[in-house]
């Protein structure tokens, strides 16, 4: 005779259901749930954005991924109370935030006031785009002020995408930057999506950077190179990247702002749209710069003219990467540049300036 226990030994278990799976997930520790959530959102989306077509007042040119990581994180936080607590407590889910100022004010304010506190002190990046001041109806407050960065936030990069040229030091923008209480590690001024504006008008980079004492990197994309000279310096900045600048650039005045600069990078995709400011050009020496990436050394004043009226000298330079060897022999022949230990010319690497000069015969 079979026992009662033997009667039940071979009874198959019910297959797992969505409800039972959810119940098991609810019982997981919050830390483990957070790790699962991070893995899920990485696979589920490619971008972080607040650009839902139902939230924006008008379409933008960028092709956004509708199921963004940030949106996926928001979905996870609405499944149940335990998932919500785990998602909110996992700051890494909210570490990259992209905001369009075309978003309706109510949605924008709710989003920022909800998501920003979840970041806490986790290193994050924030991209505020579609920034425009001239002709923008603010209804008493410009929408950029709704993106208030909290004291607890540690922002690895604050990227500001402009829609109008010449608004880099607009009073409203300076007011917003001055209100930031969190830590900003780097700033990117991006004019790649401008519609119109003033090119060639002096503007103050020093005013933009003055609120930040911990900033390490300054990046400008497609920005107006007509930067105002100033006596103030930004000693914390160690890296400067300039891509596809426009207008006239007084490089000596610009580098004077960054006495502790270690790395200078010029990027040009296609034709060059900036030139050396002939009125403010002068020879200069930067004693701290160690690494440069350039298309050619004429970007730092080493031109084909007989007198180097705007040439830069870099006695601490150890790494130099150039695409074009124009005037490179003259640059390397200068005794101030004998410390170079890594020289890349196009795709060829040399261990010193003398090795390159010897190879040229």
TrEMBL record:
Residues 1-24 are annotated as: Disordered. This is Uncharacterized protein. It comes from Serendipita indica (strain DSM 11827) (Root endophyte fungus).
């Amino acid at each position: 005779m079979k026992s009662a226990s033997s009667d039940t030994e071979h009874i198959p278990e019910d297959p797992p259901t969505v409800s039972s799976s959810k119940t098991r997930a609810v019982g997981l520790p919050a830390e483990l749930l957070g790790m699962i959530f991070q893995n899920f959102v990485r696979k589920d989306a490619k971008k972080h954005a607040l650009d839902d077509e139902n939230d924006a007042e008008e379409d933008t040119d960028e092709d956004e991924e509708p199921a963004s990581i940030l949106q996926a994180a928001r979905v996870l936080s609405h499944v149940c109370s335990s998932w919500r607590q785990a998602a909110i407590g996992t700051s890494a889910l909210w570490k990259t935030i992209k905001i369009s100022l075309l978003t309706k004010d109510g949605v924008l304010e709710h989003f920022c006031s909800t998501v920003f506190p979840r970041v806490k002190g986790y290193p994050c990046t924030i991209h505020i785009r579609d920034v425009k001041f001239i002709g923008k109806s603010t209804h008493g407050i410009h929408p950029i002020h709704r993106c208030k960065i909290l004291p607890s936030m540690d922002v690895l990069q604050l990227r500001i995408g402009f829609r109008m040229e010449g608004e880099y030091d607009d009073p409203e923008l300076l007011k917003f930057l001055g209100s930031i209480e969190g830590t900003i590690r780097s700033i990117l001024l991006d004019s790649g999506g401008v519609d119109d504006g003033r090119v060639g008008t002096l503007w103050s980079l020093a005013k933009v950077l003055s609120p930040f004492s911990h900033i390490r990197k300054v990046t400008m994309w497609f920005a107006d190179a007509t930067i105002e000279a100033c006596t103030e310096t930004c000693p914390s900045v160690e890296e400067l990247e300039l891509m596809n600048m426009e207008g006239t650039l007084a490089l000596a005045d610009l580098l004077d702002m960054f006495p502790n600069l270690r790395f200078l990078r010029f990027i040009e995709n296609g034709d060059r749209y900036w030139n050396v400011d002939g009125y403010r050009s002068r020879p200069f020496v930067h004693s701290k710069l160690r690494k440069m990436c350039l298309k050619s050394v004429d970007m730092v004043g080493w031109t084909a003219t007989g007198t180097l009226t705007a040439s830069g000298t870099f006695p601490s330079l150890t790494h130099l990467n150039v695409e074009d060897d124009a005037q490179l022999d003259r640059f390397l022949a200068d005794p101030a540049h004998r410390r170079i230990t890594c020289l890349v010319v196009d795709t060829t690497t040399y261990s010193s300036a003398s090795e390159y000069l010897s190879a040229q015969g």
